[in-house]
Amino acid sequence: MKTLVHLSDLHFGRVDQTVADALAELIARLGPQVVAVSGDLTQRARRSQFREARRFLDLLPGPRIVVPGNHDIPLFNLPARFLDPLGGYRRYITTNLQPVHADTEIAVLGLNTTRATSLKGGAVQYDDVPSMCEVLGRLSADAVKVIVGHHPFGERHHGAALEERPDARAIAQLARAGADVFLTGHRHLSYTGHTADRYDISGRAAIVVEAGTATSTRRRGEANAFNLLHIDPGRVLVERFEWQPVSGVFAVADARRFERGSQGWTAVRD
Q1: Among 6, 57, 74, 95, which residue's CB has the most CB atoms within a 10 Å radius?
Q2: Does the pTM of the predicted model rise above 0.70?
Q3: Phi, psi for 18 (deg, rounded to 5)
């Protein structure tokens, strides 16, 4: 069994340092085989915030698959926003915008969903889908394949029907190509389900896991949280850890189990 920690929306610059310190200590104790960070490492893409995020990442075990979020693009520095939107991210975090970690049991692929032309929104670039599908096709058939992006894939946006959105078609195509789990953030709200429920997409079902904000004070009615995935070739358990302010620790708040079948993944009732 492999374990994967899923963090999102750290927002250094608006961080609860007590939560961040406890989180780093807990992840070190958990000792996951992979840490995935699905974007918004900073609040305003400032150098000092990227440096803080870099120090936090360096406390975590590796390998680490990290992707940018919309907050990692400068908001007020317009020349930087449009000429080099991910300059700070590349300088302090990583130059690789499509990172991959793969072995015979698990494969984790990062995907950049940010857009310099959008203040908050983002989506899978449909031009990236063929290359992602090619990578998925080269991986071991037994490996559980995880795709990490910041923005929820296929999210309804600006009133567009789901089936008309390129990113909705992308998630269906990636699932057919073998993607088993999609990890995202952005909403600061946790969710675990599968593609048939979340996006009303038919065909092979994949697991959808959205993380709340791990360390930010910018909570939206939910405590700071992160996910721990226990991954076997035919089974995935997703545990959501939530911050307990009274005791000052993260504790498991709920869990969802999934099993792999001929049509993809289905939820298992305990």
Answers
A1: 6
A2: yes
A3: -60, -45
Q: How far apart are CA 1 and CA 242, in angstroms?
A: 23
Classify residue 154 as exposed, middle or buried by CB count within 10 Å of its CB (0-12, 13-18, 19+). buried
Higher local confidence (pLDDT), 60 or 122: 60
Cα–Cα distance between 149 and 153 in angstroms, integer?
A: 8
pLDDT in tens, 188-225: 999 999 877 766 666 788 999 999 999 999 898 899 99
Burial 75-86 (b: 16+ CB within 10 A, else e): eebeebbeebbb
Q: Is the peptide bond before 61 cis (omega within 30 degrees of 0)?
A: no
CA 188/CA 69 separation, integer angstroms: 12
C-alpha pair distances (Å), 196 with each of 151, 187, 191, 201: 18, 20, 14, 5
pLDDT at 199: 65
Count other Cβ atoms within 10 Å, centred on residue 225: 22
Tell me, what CATH number does 220's domain have?
Answer: 3.60.21.10
- 15 with 55: CB under 8 angstroms? no
Radius of gyration of the chain from Cα atoms?
17
- In angstroms, rounded to a whole number, what is the distance separating the alpha carbons of residues 164 and 142? 32
| Domains: count for the chain | 1
